[in-house]
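Reply to dn_fold:

You asked what the input looked like. This is it:
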Amino acid sequence: MVRVMRLIRADERGLTLTELMVSVMLLTIVSVILTGTLVTTTMATRDVQNAAASNDDVRLVLQTLDREVRSAERICLPTPGTSGNTLSFRTRAWVNTPPPAGYRDILYQLNADAGGDLTILQKSEDGGTTWRTVIDNVENVARTTDLFENQGDDTTALPSQGKVITIQIWVDANPNDRVGAEYATTEISGRNVWTPSAQGC
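and this is what came back:
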């Protein structure tokens, strides 16, 4: 019985200082590795989410503009052979409720954010009195590339003058992440017989 008690006491002696230090060191190494993996995974997940958000924003803008510009009666800005960050056109299309007989003037413009940078693409249906934000974090100005370009030529015969609009857009949902801006471009040609942009705008 005495021998059994001695064995139990021998097992309850605990750890030596050396064993404790080795355990703490191993725990520290494992913690550093796990923390680094967690940080890397979190950053990668955030980058993928921001890239997807930029892609969704670009797609939304191109789809919206494609639908609206194709129903345009005429393009007012940019004028044929020029480019700019304002797109103005007249259309008979309606969004929520049918308008009375006549036209609706639509204006898309790159406007300034709170910091004064031209990075917010906004839309107005009342000549620029009220604006609705379509997307923000547009990088066209930083890249010195205009958002809209009218491929028309002043010398072309009616009604083809100013008929094709090229849209080039860079969007970065989070400028502070490691993912660059999402780029997309398209050319839109109206299905209606357009009148030249020099008239009626």
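Helices lie at 2-11, 17-70.
Hope that clears it up.
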